[in-house]
Amino acid sequence: MGSGTSPKGSGVVGSEQKGKVETEGPVMEEVQTCCGCRFPLLVALLQLLLGIAVAVVAFLMLGISSSLLARETPHWAGIIMCVVSLLGFVLFCITRVPDERALVQFVIKLLYFFLCTTGLVISLVVIAFQCYHYTLTNSLSCKEVGDDCVCTRDPSDPIARLFSYSAVPDCSAITSTLLMYYLLQILLNLAQAIVCLIGAFLIWKHRYQVFFAGLQSASPSTQQWQKV
Fold first, then answer.
1. pTM for the complete prediction?
2. What number of other Cβ atoms are within 10 A of residue 132's Cβ?
3. What is the mean predicted confidence (pLDDT) over 48-58?
């Protein structure tokens, strides 16, 4: 009949379309979600909140006495964690395509992985310092000397080491308030270490445990590829 089409022509067109579909790879990468949020939004948000909390508590500790050392007031750990979270937000905002097609995305992922690992190590170091200073401060006997608070571990020992906290007229700020801040820093940095560990693990899992198998899981028009 006049309305019929050539089977040969249809076969050529079909083979061309099939070849075109097979040569095209996945355009967009499957979006990872965690608790309904796209990765790494939730992790970066927690890192930002914990980093701000650590920095605020550290500055409150520094307000008690200017004699406190940097390892006793780990505001630097909170600032570093805020920087890590900002990189996580950048990773969240960029277009997600396969790593083989986006060098910038791969570099940001790698940098975010190393920063999460660094944040984990820093948090553990801060926890160790805070535990040490909590134990040390808890064993001190303090008394007011002018506008300062002078503490020692053994008041009966004349050659015992003295710990002087300047501009602290009330020693209860050292024996009670500062101890509470030490405990708070331990808890915050512990949570911070857990979040960094989760972020580093998810980046590692997504990069090395998931790859494109080259199998289509839907119709050729959708261009969806199956991950194994």
1. 0.72
2. 13
3. 96
